[in-house]
Write a structure and sequence with these properties.
heterodimer, A: mainly alpha, two-stranded antiparallel ribbon, 2 strands, B: 458 residues, alpha/beta, 25% strand
């Protein structure tokens, strides 16, 4: 079973054409606004679509469906290309000085991390601002899933790719056909985005900023059109709207779809993962709120809002900021750091390890305890009444190990280049779990500009690695992956 | 169309694969979790793990929204039960069930009487028997398939090295006096499938399919050096399962003397009660000594019909060596089929492939009259009726752009005229057209043939 690189690149070409197409949106916006400079985006469209067209035309179309291996490889190639070509609008503009910075910004965008190398976001013209936030939106639901929805060339291979990109072991197929599943997910995603846009607009944002923030929120990205992030608006109403939509974006989209189609709130709120997820957010908010009132000196309403915003932002791995949480007490800061690992629900646009994995892990540990007490007992692992197959448990343990290895290696590389301990840990965690702001030198009021190029590449790799949940991105480095 | 398939075996996965390619939405219910994940990897379909006999599982699989049910689990009762659930719980308009019991006729009646409306009850064993019987009299022929109510016949043959056609191109064969209305439609060579043109050369070891008019069938057989056996005297049947018994019954009726080999003594006694003139031999029909003792040499046909594919293959090869004039092997696993021909087995019969064909033909019904798959579904023969609005109607064949890997094998006109067409022949509305095509171009071919003529600018 050999990987047909030509066939993979042929399909990648098609995806690049799609990517070039998505750039038309900021290009159009930029061209229609006086004073904006559309040329960087136009160049990027031409290069991306040109490269895509050449790959698509020059390489032969695969005669049979893609194998699982080819599907995985294709997802990796697509993500690499998307980060590279998606960075071109930045690269061609005067605001980004190197290819490293452009690729970092694009990787951060498509993986919905939201870490930026820009000192000052507001100098960017609207077209580029829009592209930054749009990359969040595209990457949130998944660029591959978008391709599956609109490109008819994948067949059953599309399923392998959907699995390789879409988060979580628990996401079931909504429709028998993968194409229609992808379309359903994208449409509910678009509807939620439109809803947030309207609410933000009515709450006083201008249309442009409303759409940027809607894109960023639903993708759980974190790029804002303001350097001070959401804090820049100084509007409690806007903050509350964004809190609600961040939480919604962290929920499994198949549940959103079910809720929309069947209108049974009971099934939505009856889902074990959603309950745990909401519980975690409520508990962490409560604790932080109390510390803010009694130790930092906020008044109650500000404390609740700030705590809820930051907890939602970190748990869902969005990374918007309304307060400099580095001024908060250590307990609150550490709590936020822990929430970075938890992340949102499976099948959402959020990053992190995902709530259901922790629920499952708890069950595994519980079973181990019971086994010690009752050595001959046979225990099934259940999650919300459903029995979880042993294979899923094994995959989970492997994933934990991989996450640990990636985090440890990347942190060591950062430390080796002279970055301090807290910043190393926080930057790697915030990148791998696609959050954005961390602690230390990458805190809520800082950015990633000061790192050297090697660190930026390592972090960009961490972002993609975390977005594809480790296995997909790492398996291509196995020698046996390339053997027959 | 949303189609629910219960049972995730080989038949199900093959049907699903084809139906998905033709644009249908497929949901499969399968009990075994491992098989479920296999199917999930292989098919762009929704796989639901659970029992097809469970109403809850069927609801979970969306039986309410499905338009068609294909019940092909390994258990007859479950298949019928699923149809019952479908009738009660949903608006499914078409129900297909596979039933393997020999009491299938009774079940057809019972279902009708109780008002359980199953549109197609498939009995794979009968389908297999129907495919075996016609080829017994012609040893060199692997299979005979009829189209257009028998007006057109297709037969397959292995090209032995000593056959005079070896090394000839198709044009040379035509010049050598092949019947006018005949055509070499498909050549299976090693792992390759060729839809040939006139320059293609026939090689030793090829498995060739020839299409011809009914009237020219005998002439064509003679032309390629095949002889019919005047009469069937002796036939050996290996394996006393349903299909063996059924075929023995049929042969008895034709006055053939049949010997049936079965290893299990109890089973032998039972068979002896069912069958009349057939001699039931309690012994190992794959053992050379036993076969020689029973005088296999010169037997008209040896049919290896046990449940075990490997046994059948080996037994058939052995029988061939012991000079049975014709050997037939029952092969269930589809991926063994390409091999069988190369091992020198005259005919390999697959009830599963027959089932897949029957179901596909039923699903596509309307303008598609019949569908036959060859080997491991690598090629297909499709008989379709040309509708007046088809894009192919009224055009000369040479002006029609057929997909690469497809040819028109024969055309049967409504007035009874049958031609194997040349480039200047044309297709009229109402003709039955028999295409031969590689499996991967079938959807393209069908949509082109069945599509209406585009109007206006296009």
């Amino acid at each position: 079973m050999v990987i047909r690189v030509g066939a993979v690149l042929h399909i990648t070409g098609a995806f690049l054409l799609v990517l070039g197409g998505t750039m038309l949106f900021p290009l159009l916006y930029s061209a229609l606004h006086e004073g904006d400079n559309p040329w960087p985006i136009l160049f990027a469209v031409l290069v991306t679509a040109g490269a895509g067209a050449v790959m698509f035309k020059a390489l032969p179309r695969p005669t049979s469906e893609l194998s699982i291996r080819e599907g995985v490889f294709l997802v990796c190639v697509i993500w690499a290309c998307v980060c590279l070509f998606g960075g071109l609008p930045f690269f061609f503009s005067p605001y980004f000085t190197s290819l490293t910075d452009s690729v970092f910004e694009a990787a951060s965008g498509f993986t919905t991390t939201g870490a930026t190398i820009l000192q000052d976001v507001e100098v960017l013209p609207d077209g580029l601002q829009l592209w930054r936030c749009f990359t969040h939106w595209l990457g949130g639901m998944g660029i591959v899933l978008l391709g599956v929805a609109i490109l008819p060339l994948l067949g059953a291979g599309g399923m392998h790719m959907y699995r390789a990109e879409f988060s979580g072991a628990r996401s079931e197929k909504l429709k028998p056909r993968i194409t229609e599943t992808a379309i359903s997910l994208w449409s509910i995603y678009a509807m939620l985005t439109a809803a947030e846009f309207l609410l933000l607009w009515m709450a006083g944002m201008n249309k442009f900023e409303a759409i940027c923030h809607a894109f960023s929120t639903l993708g759980t990205g974190g790029f804002s059109s303001r350097t001070a992030s959401v804090a820049g608006f100084e509007s409690p109403l806007i903050e509350w709207i964004i809190i609600v939509f961040m939480i919604l974006a962290g929920v499994n989209f198949t549940l959103h779809y079910r809720l929309w189609r069947e209108r049974q709130a009971r099934r939505f709120f009856g889902d074990v993962e959603v309950r745990a997820y909401l519980g975690v957010i409520a508990a962490a908010t409560a604790v932080i709120c109390v510390t803010l009132v009694f130790q930092t000196g906020y008044d109650w309403s500000r404390a609740l809002r700030a705590a809820a915003f930051q907890v939602a932002s970190i748990t869902t791995t969005t990374g918007f900021v309304t307060a400099d949480y580095e001024q908060w007490v250590p307990l609150a800061q550490l709590l936020l750091l822990i929430l970075m690992f938890v992340g949102g629900c499976t099948g959402s646009t959020a990053g992190g390890m995902k709530v259901s994995r922790f629920l499952l892990l708890r069950q595994v540990v519980r079973r181990q305890f019971r086994r010690i007490v009752e050595p001959r007992g046979v225990f099934a692992i259940r999650l919300g009444g459903d029995v979880v197959p042993e294979a899923t448990v094994r995959v989970l343990l492997n994933l934990l190990y991989l996450a640990f290895v990636v985090l440890a290696t990347a942190t060591l590389i950062l430390a080796a280049t002279g970055v301090d301990v807290l910043t190393s840990i926080a930057a790697v965690t915030a990148s791998t779990f696609n959050i954005g702001p961390g602690l230390g030198a990458v805190g809520p009021m800082d950015n990633y500009a000061h790192f050297n190029p090697l660190v930026k590449w390592v972090l960009a790799f961490c972002m993609v690695c975390g977005r594809l949940e480790f296995f997909t991105a790492l398996v291509i480095f196995m020698p046996s992956f390339w053997r027959k | 169309m949303r189609i629910l398939i219960t049972g995730g075996g080989e038949v199900a996965s093959h049907i699903a694969k084809r139906l998905i390619r033709e644009g249908n939405e497929i949901v499969i219910v399968e009990r075994d979790p491992d098989r479920c994940s296999q199917l999930e990897e292989a098919l762009d379909a929704k796989i639901v793990q659970g029992s097809a006999a469970s109403v809850k599982t069927l609801q979970r699989a969306g039986i309410r929204d499905a338009e068609m049910l294909i019940a092909v689990t390994s258990v007859d009762e479950v298949n019928i039960l699923t149809c019952l659930v479908a009738q009660a719980e949903s608006n499914i308009t078409v129900k297909v069930a596979r039933v393997r019991t020999h009491e299938v006729e009774h079940w057809r009646r019972v279902c009708k009487q109780t008002g359980l409306d199953i549109d197609l009850i498939i009995h794979p064993e009968s389908l297999a028997v129907d495919r075996i019987l016609p080829v017994l009299r012609i040893p060199g022929v692997s299979d005979i398939i009829e189209f257009a109510d028998g007006q057109v016949k297709l037969f397959g043959m292995n090209i032995e090295p000593d056959n005079w056609v070896v090394g000839k191109t198709l044009i040379e064969l035509a010049k050598a006096g092949a019947p006018k209305n005949s055509l070499v439609a498909m050549i299976f060579r090693g792992a390759e499938v060729i839809i040939p043109d006139g320059r293609e050369r026939i090689l030793a070891g090829d498995h060739v399919y020839v299409v011809t008019r009914r009237e020219e069938f005998d002439q064509m057989l003679e032309f390629v050096g095949l002889r019919q056996q005047e009469s069937l005297d002796r036939v050996f049947v290996l394996g006393g399962k349903q299909i063996g018994i059924q075929i023995a019954e049929e042969l008895e009726r034709q006055g053939v003397s049949v010997k049936l080999f079965e290893r299990d003594l109890e089973r032998c006694q039972k068979i002896a009660e069912i069958l009349d003139s057939t001699i039931v031999v309690n012994g190992d029909g794959t053992d050379a000594a036993t076969l020689l003792e029973e005088n296999i040499k010169g037997v008209n046909a040896y049919l290896a019909l046990t449940q075990d594919d490997e046994d059948n293959l080996i037994a058939a090869i052995l029988a061939r060596r012991l000079e049975a004039k014709k050997v037939v092997a029952l092969i269930n696993r589809l991926n063994y089929l390409p091999m069988a021909q190369r091992l020198g087995i005259n005919t390999s019969i697959s009830p599963r492939l027959a089932t897949v064909d029957r179901i596909l033909q039923f699903v596509r019904k309307g303008q598609v009259v019949s569908v036959t798959s060859f080997r491991d579904e690598e090629a297909e023969a499709i008989e379709m009726v040309a509708a007046p609005e088809s894009r192919y109607v009224g055009k000369k064949l040479k002006d029609i752009k057929l997909p690469q890997g497809a040819i028109v094998g024969a055309v049967a006109r409504p007035d009874g005229e049958v031609i194997v067409p040349r480039g200047h022949s044309s297709i009229h509305a109402g003709d039955r057209v028999i295409f031969f095509a590689l499996e991967r171009v079938v959807p393209e071919l069908e949509s082109a043939f069945l599509a209406e003529k585009r109007s206006g600018l296009w």
